[in-house]
Design a protein that fits this description.
Number of helices: 9
Structural class: alpha+beta
Helix content: 55-70%
Order of helices and strands: HHHHHHHEEHHEE
Distance between the termini: 62 Å
Shape: globular
Low-confidence stretches: 212-216
Radius of gyration: 20 Å
Strand order of the largest sheet: 1-2-4-3
Number of domains: 1
Mean pLDDT: 91
């Protein structure tokens, strides 16, 4: 078998694969769909979502990493659920976002339970906050070794979801964020607004806490 034939077959196999099955973020959603709709309908939704994702990636091969990892799959899943179960997509995806966020929260709690990790985090909060907010529009930014506050007024995830015609799909990712951020020891985290839910900003407020919460 010549090299070109091998490459062509490899490309065909990659196209047939459902990339959602390989996604750390989204792969367990299939199980939730089976529980909710039964295996047959869930598989139809999952295959539809996988095909939509493949088309998005093919149409925009140079898109940013955030869109590939989060927004494209979220949009594909949302649209697939809406096709097979009209009216369900927002509730199903928000519920999964919360569940996934809770799983990640446990990971964050284990990591930040290690001695010295919260203190190190706060020591470098300016760099961490800068990296986490890269690509986002912010205002009212306050960053010290004791607090971190900012209002996010533009979000690439929300913008891309709107561009794809499914702004509601971004709410699943927003629900993840709201859960897992509470798993960081040494920090009191609060957010009462969300761009994805129609507010004027995401109001992040983080304060350093003491030894009882693992802050030092």
């Amino acid at each position: 078998m010549d090299k070109k034939t091998v490459q062509k077959r490899g490309e065909i196999m990659r196209q047939r694969e459902n990339q959602l099955d390989q996604s750390f973020v989204y792969k367990k959603l299939k199980r939730e769909l089976v529980h909710r709709y039964g295996k047959e309908k869930a598989c139809a939704i999952w295959e539809e979502a996988g095909e939509r994702l493949r088309k998005l990636e093919t149409a925009e091969p140079e898109t940013d990493k955030t869109s590939r990892m989060f927004t494209f799959p979220a949009a594909a899943i949302y649209q697939a659920i809406e096709r097979y179960a009209p009216g369900d997509a927002l509730g199903v995806t928000r519920a999964y976002g919360k569940q996934f966020g809770q799983r990640v929260r446990k990971i964050f709690r284990r990591i930040t339970a290690l001695p010295g990790v919260p203190a190190l985090m706060w020591k470098h909060m300016d760099k961490l906050a800068g990296k986490m907010s890269d690509g986002y529009g912010t205002k009212n930014v306050i960053i010290t070794t004791e607090q971190c506050a900012m209002d996010v007024i533009s979000c690439p995830i929300c913008d891309k979801a709107k561009e794809l015609g499914v702004p509601e799909a971004a709410q699943m990712i927003c629900c993840m964020d709201k859960e897992y951020m509470t798993g960081i020891r040494g920090m009191d985290y609060r957010r009462t607004k969300s761009l994805a839910e129609g507010d004027d900003c995401c109001d992040y407020r983080m304060k350093r806490t003491g030894k009882k919460s693992g802050g030092f």
